Amino acid sequence: MSFRIERDPLGEMNVPADAYYGVQTARAVENFPISGLRAPADLVTATILVKKAAAEANASLGRLDRGVADAIRTAADEILGGELHDQFVVDVYQAGAGTSHNMNANEVLANRAGELLGEPRGTYRRVHPNDHVNMSQSTNDVYPTSTRLALLLGSAPLVAAAGTLADSLERKAGEFAHVLKTGRTHLQDAVPMTLGQEFGGYAACVRRGADDVSDAAEQLQELNLGATAVGTGLNAGDEYRERVVAQLARYTGLRLRPAANPFRVTQSMGDVLAYSSAMRRLAVEVGKLASDLRLLSMGPRAGLSEIVLPAVQPGSSIMPGKVNPSVAEMVNQVCFQVMGCDATIAIACEAGQLELNVMMPVIAWNALHASSILREALKVFRLRCVDGLVSDEARARELLERSTATATALSPHIGYAATAEIAKEAVKSGRTIRELVLERGLMDEKRLDEILSVEGMTRGGVVGKKD
């Protein structure tokens, strides 16, 4: 490999000759060989959008030469089109605040823009990473803005994936509206319900979780771009703030606005925490759904087996014919990871001192990772599990008829104590509730049939009550 020599305030350093990044990025690569993880694609996109907007705003204010601004914009558009992403080489775990990530973007844009203007890489005479690409900016407003913007870019697809999953569950609710089954609480038999009611509840849970994500995303629309180092806007100014945020809004179609209090948004990553917490809530709802589907499908002979999940792969290397709830198991694991990401984000958000939270890199990576894996898991869950699952109506009815839960409907007519005694005897003897009530002469057969109507129990109210 051949090298070029670049200089920064710490001295000289070799940089790969063909690299578009520069000396400060090279130092970060040398300093932080930690995980092999790199900036998520959405974070790169968001950062480049910020740099493009800044160049346009500075040029419109007469601060930046129009030719240099145009070169930066062209270089930015190339990266936004998918080029040079391999030049973003800084590890996720880096110096606080994301300075290395910011400089990585500055150097790549400066070298590519300079190249467009006929300048060799690494010279920085026409386009300098700090003086031109980073003009009117600080890492302290670029990185939180990029984090918020990256999350917003992924928010609509995440909410859409949750919404289509909820739609699928609602279709299943309609499909299973007539399927009678035993409701369960504490993993014990409870009162009768329909499988459709159960799935309708699942749909509502997922949709409410998606609504929370959508609501939390609105907080991310408030940007501290232009606040520079601590929130005062030094080297930027109010007119720049308005123009640069307006440019970002125009590029993305998002309802972005300057922070009402730039000091708050510079000091705190609480808005990102709120968004992460909403994703955690969605993950909890979806994870519970996945666990329930695994329980309801357990068997097929020695378990509940009230539903049948699509077979997507063989389930065992030793037991022929075994099929596992593989997709639901994957979803559970993803939801656990999302919850873990949220725990990291919460700790890191609390650790920000004074005018800046320097833990932003780990906050950004965990939030974006959670958003990405949750979105993809929701898609697969719907397509390869929920859409194709079916009910075993006969099995659900069999278990219902064996349950003593129907005795609950007797309680308003013969009292709790008498009902409990009959239920206890039914469990002990194996006889049905109906047989025991008739044997004891507590009511006639016609009246008992009205009260023990399973369909009536699923509609609420006191079954068999006479006006």
Quick rundown:
The chain has helices at 23-31, 41-60, 66-80, 99-116, 129-133, 139-175, 195-217, 238-252, 262-267, 270-296, 326-350, 360-386, 393-402, 411-414, 416-429, 433-439, 445-451, 454-457; strands spanning 3-8, 11-16, 180-185, 188-194, 222-223, 257-258, 307-308, 390-391. With 467 residues, the protein is mainly α.
Main beta-sheet strand count, sense and barrel state: 2 strands, antiparallel
In the CATH hierarchy, the architecture of the largest domain is Up-down Bundle
Would you state the CATH class of the largest domain? Mainly Alpha
Order of strands in the sheet with most strands = 1-2
Average pLDDT confidence is 95
Structural class: mainly alpha
Q: Give the domain tally.
A: 3
What's the CATH superfamily of the largest domain, by name? Fumarase/aspartase (Central domain)
Shape descriptor reads elongated
Kindly identify the CATH topology of the largest domain: Fumarase C, Chain A, domain 2
Order of helices and strands: EEHHHHHHEEHEHEHHEHHEHHHHHH
What is the tally of helical segments? 18
* Poorly predicted sequence stretches spanning 5 or more consecutive residues: none
Fraction in beta strands? 5-15%
* Helix share bin: 55-70%
Spatial gap, N to C terminus: 91 Å
Cα Rg? 30 Å
Give the beta-strand count: 8
